[in-house]
Design a protein that fits this description.
The chain has 293 residues and is mostly helical. It is 54% helix and 6% strand. It folds into 3 domains: 66 residues, 30s Ribosomal Protein S14, Chain N; 120 residues; 60 residues. It has 10 helices and 6 strands, in the order H-E-E-H-H-E-E-E-E-H-H-H-H-H-H-H. Strands 2-1-3 form a 3-stranded antiparallel sheet, with no helix packed on it. Strands 5-4-6 form a 3-stranded antiparallel sheet. GO terms for molecular function: zinc ion binding.
């Protein structure tokens, strides 16, 4: 338990040095005193634990901006907060212009603002998760865009048709990349805001927390991703592929019918008949079925 306490003190005081230490070997401060406006290491803090006139001094976790906690008008600790005027007060300030105001201890206001920070942090985390999920949906949608199953048939088509198909595919991929990039940028921004919220939630500097809270509590201006965008702009592309596939099926059926019935003149005539005739009237060749699948 003692080791744990020492570790916590070391973490809290690593950046604040004792003002009472001399020379270049200053120790880390463990507490700061409002009345003395001084930060003390464990050794120099001993008087505040034993001397009668010092025991009543208010000690806080060490801060390097201790002078900011002192009222410049009355040289008293800023221990109170006026919710009406949104300003810090000392015990004398209350009597001058703040008698009927809503006054609370700075620790209480800090606690209330910390609760708001936690709420905002939870909302930011949810926004991050929503965007990560949406990113995965887009990636999955792009992976499931079934073009490869048609490649064997498309290779038999003219080269310009294949070029058109790949152009459409590249356009869909580009759009997906742009959406993912936009989402990742928002995720980065939200993570930076989450980091700022996390740091502010763990600060012991009440003054800094209250001064910074309003700027980080507001949610970042980001795009609404509530609409379904996973289909991208591939619908027309998919319909065109389906039409092409049906045409290829029909032509291949005619092709195999001609190959397997070379002595039937009617087959050639039937193959040149209107394309509006149902392809179900032409028997499916096993090889054709495997080709399509």
């Amino acid at each position: 338990m003692a080791d744990h306490t020492k570790m916590e003190e070391s973490q809290n005081t690593s950046n604040v040095l004792c003002d009472a230490c001399h020379g270049n070997q200053k120790l880390s401060a463990v507490k700061s005193c409002f009345q003395c406006v001084t930060s003390f290491c464990e050794t120099h803090l001993e008087n505040h634990k034993t001397a009668a006139r010092l025991i009543k001094h208010k000690l806080i976790d060490p801060v390097d901006n201790l002078e900011d906690y002192i009222c410049v008008k009355h040289e008293k600790p800023l221990e109170l907060f006026c919710r009406d005027d949104r300003t810090f007060l000392c015990s004398i300030c209350i009597e001058i212009g703040h008698k009927a105001h809503n006054i609370v201890p700075i620790e209480q206001e800090s606690g209330d603002q910390r609760a708001q920070l936690e709420k905002t942090q939870a909302e930011v985390k949810m926004m991050i998760q929503d965007r990560i999920k949406k990113t995965e949906e887009i990636k999955s949608s792009e992976k499931n865009n079934n073009v490869k199953s048609l490649i064997a048939l498309i290779e038999r088509c003219q080269s310009e048709l294949l070029e058109v198909i790949w152009q459409k595919q590249k356009a869909a991929e580009k759009q997906a990349e742009e959406l993912i990039q936009e989402l990742e940028q928002e995720i980065s921004e939200l993570k930076r805001r989450e980091t700022a919220l996390e740091q502010l939630l763990h600060t012991e500097d009440h003054l800094h927390l209250l001064q910074t809270c309003s700027s980080v509590c507001s949610l970042p201006q980001v795009k609404s991703w509530t609409s379904n965008i996973t289909d991208l702009n591939t619908e027309i592309f998919k319909k065109a592929l389906q039409g092409l596939q049906e045409n290829i099926k029909m032509e291949l059926k005619k092709f195999f019918e001609i190959i397997h019935c070379p002595h039937r003149p009617s087959v050639v005539q039937e193959s040149s008949a209107s394309d509006s005739e149902s392809t179900d009237s032409v028997p499916s060749h096993p090889l054709l079925v495997s080709e399509v699948l």
